[in-house]
Specification:
With 146 residues, this protein is of the alpha+beta class. Helix content is 21%, strand content 36%. It has three helices and five strands, in the order E-H-H-E-E-E-E-H.
Length: 146
Amino acid sequence: MPPAIPANAFTVSFVVQPTDIDGLDHAANYRICRWISDAALAHSRALGFDEPQYQQLGGWFVLRRHEIDYHAQIRLGDELTIHTWPTELAKVTAGRRHVILREGDAMPVVTAMNTWAFIDAATGRPKRIPDELRTIFDPRKFQNDE
């Protein structure tokens, strides 16, 4: 059972292209990881925080861990929507959920969680997540009302 998608989750829709397909005639796993990562970055941009702003902070989020469940095959031409939202913030890490739905039948084809680490751009070492990022990625803003 996929997690409940918050009403204000960020969404990106697209159609699966020939370059997304592997030798088994379905979406390659590395492409799915890319879609998830791209959706997270697009969400940051939509919230007003883009690459130049990260450079000003002297830090960047990097993927530390992926956990992906594949529920159905993704094929060429499938219309997909990725829903993504922050789920937790720690000192130097942030959690994020993703649900990829196939349009038409709204079938969940992928659910995922990942952990991002905030690193210092100069040293490559973990760095405390700045307050401005804590404000825009506050997981409480993305909780469903129970």
